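Appendix B, record 7
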Amino acid sequence: MKIIKEAQGGQRAALEEGDLALIGALARKPLEEEEIYTFSVRLCDNEIDRDNERFAPETLEGLSGLFVGKSGIFDHQWSARGQTARIYKTEVVREPGRVTRAGDEYCWLKGYAYMMRTDSTRDLIAEIEGGIKKEVSVGCRVERAVCSICGADRNQGDCGHEKGREYGGQLCYTSLEGAQDAYEFSFVAVPAQPLAGVVKSAGSWREQVQQLPGGDRELKQLEEEARLGRKYLEQLRGEVVRLALLADGQLEGDVMKSAAARLTPEELEALGASFARRAGARYPVKTQLSYGDKAARPSEADRAFLI
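Structure tokens (predicted):
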């Protein structure tokens, strides 16, 4: 699952001991302090955002190492011409005493980036210093989008819980878990957002697909396959619940529905087969016609047809 999140960034950062060595490891030659400009960016945090999503703290830890060495560009335009900076180190910053809406300690991923001091970067450096360029957006990939109510992976289908609603006093949101990859960070032209929330760029991956040759057709096919997959998954969950209740009359329907919502299609198929066997043993199929133990004898009326 590809994620693009936007947050505040673009704050000047002074070089610390060992930073030149970290930067030199990314460069083709050792660089002097006067040759480079360094700044920090707030990449992402674990607060529930305006889309009712948030990065789990463990995901931030995973993304921390993945962002080292990644480029800074503009507006997610993946072109070598737009490369202006590179992240040389990261850290997860924790703020004790500050609690997120999810109930855990607030933390955020901080990236330290450098760029070369050249004629072409002079204006950008001035804009960062002047607070003009301070919004950044990150592109990354996570494994799961977990519903906070039932624990279902929303990538596998709709669990029925609506983000932003409360169920039994508990807010429904999506937890982004399992850091897989980090792509880049971009300077973007968006209004400054409060630190308590980040903004997600909805549909940016669609735009990238549509720009490819045949992208519109491919996107429609993917959406149709996804719709059929969600329909199949919904039917499979219903069938597993039905078989479970047949196999064991003591089970609660609501409990089984909640359990089924957490399972993958493979797990549902295996569980359904098991319940089907148990239901078959409990309710064996019987023939409607029974001839008894005695061999059937032809009646007198039928003898005329015997040869």
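Remarks on this record: Residues 215-247 form the longest helix (33 residues). Confidence is low (pLDDT under 50) at residues 190-204.
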